[in-house]
Amino acid sequence: MSSFVLRGAVFADDSVADVLVADGRIVEIGNNLQGDEVIDCTGLRLLPGFVDLHTHLREPGFEASETVLTGSQSAALGGYTAVHAMANTNPVADNAAVVEMVRNLGARAGYVEVFPIGAVTKGLEGAQMAELGLMNQSQAQVKVFSDDGKCVSDALVMKRALEYVKSFDGVIAQHAQEPKLTDGSQMNDSELSAVLGLKGWPAVAEESIIARDVLLAEHTGARLHICHLSTAGSVEVIRWAKSRGINVTAEVTPHHLMLTEQLVSEYNPLYKVNPPLRKQSDVLALREALIDGTIDIIATDHAPHAAELKDCEFSAAAFGMVGLETAAAVAQNVLIESGRSNWQRFAEVMSHNPARIGRDENQGEAIAVGAVANLTLIDAEAVRTIAAQTASKSSNNPYQGLQLKGKVVHTIYRGQFTVRNSELQKVVSA
């Protein structure tokens, strides 16, 4: 493999240097470096490749909405070098055969590293624990388990799952939603839901499960991760749990950091999502928690859907939004353009922390000599108008038509350009 130099890139700490990449690794950092090719990166922000702990790639079973290939391409365009694929496929990823298939599909695609997430319960039915140990011992080496899309609502099942994954340093990623409080719910429970005549989704449905599960995590000593926080109350529960030393981490999605329930006023199914968009006060609380470290990461919950599942009346539409190609711009808006944080925190929530939680080897590493060259370069000054659809097969993009600052210029996965000058590249797959 030929070598190349990233000339004059700006690091997260605002220092400027050249980076020499050869044989898939960073071999030198300095000034006036030489390689087979020199790429001008003046003014571009150099960051570790992004890692998404919460992606729906839909394959197997729902290829009309997304495939591992198209989802991987969308991820690369968004600056990602690794994604964790949720288990709610058909068949469900609740056994070694399915997770190994997803892992192999990711390797053949070659755009990002695809880490399969295993289901906590068989068939996502919430009753019988899935083959957690066998999935961990398989070639996929699964470390993260989730029934996302459904809550592990049975406390005994959740306790046993936490105890089981502790033995191999796994983590349970909980979709916090008490089903008895949300049956038939369509949007945030508020005055607006009453006006619109849509059944409300109360904040307590999320907060009560989180409160229960952090206590179970404390009891078992296991690692717990909470998916897609959406309320100010959830933030306070996580903050309390961390003050007690409970081994819990939490994520927030880009859409919960930027969008509010007011967008549902026109009954546009584009803005129907689980958990629902909340009030502006919740958005502000989530932003503050991301900045102060209560929330550990941004995770996209990229949820593509075929057109017929969204182009229908609101009550019949599927929940979910795509987000891989816009997450970095939203993160920049929240952390950098607000003046509230910095690029080092950006790297933590988009790269370092999700890789640490997922125990992802060679991902989210500091940019240093010897590290695998999983890198992203952003033009932080570029302003772009968001298209409805690019690499993803789905167009349920809640940001379409908006102008956002920040554009991924290059994505480098294992020393190979998957995106160059903001265009997808042909790659040599593993």
Automatic annotation (TrEMBL):
<dbReference type="GO" id="GO:0004038">
    <property type="term" value="F:allantoinase activity"/>
</dbReference>
<feature type="domain" description="Dihydroorotase catalytic">
    <location>
        <begin position="46"/>
        <end position="231"/>
    </location>
</feature>
<dbReference type="GO" id="GO:0004151">
    <property type="term" value="F:dihydroorotase activity"/>
</dbReference>
<dbReference type="InterPro" id="IPR050138">
    <property type="entry name" value="DHOase/Allantoinase_Hydrolase"/>
</dbReference>
<dbReference type="GO" id="GO:0005737">
    <property type="term" value="C:cytoplasm"/>
</dbReference>
<dbReference type="InterPro" id="IPR032466">
    <property type="entry name" value="Metal_Hydrolase"/>
</dbReference>
<keyword id="KW-0665">Pyrimidine biosynthesis</keyword>
<dbReference type="GO" id="GO:0006145">
    <property type="term" value="P:purine nucleobase catabolic process"/>
</dbReference>
<keyword id="KW-0479">Metal-binding</keyword>
<dbReference type="GO" id="GO:0046872">
    <property type="term" value="F:metal ion binding"/>
</dbReference>
<dbReference type="GO" id="GO:0006221">
    <property type="term" value="P:pyrimidine nucleotide biosynthetic process"/>
</dbReference>
<dbReference type="Pfam" id="PF12890">
    <property type="entry name" value="DHOase"/>
</dbReference>
<keyword id="KW-0378">Hydrolase</keyword>
<protein>
    <submittedName>
        <fullName>Unannotated protein</fullName>
    </submittedName>
</protein>
<dbReference type="InterPro" id="IPR011059">
    <property type="entry name" value="Metal-dep_hydrolase_composite"/>
</dbReference>
<dbReference type="InterPro" id="IPR024403">
    <property type="entry name" value="DHOase_cat"/>
</dbReference>
<dbReference type="InterPro" id="IPR002195">
    <property type="entry name" value="Dihydroorotase_CS"/>
</dbReference>
<dbReference type="InterPro" id="IPR004722">
    <property type="entry name" value="DHOase"/>
</dbReference>
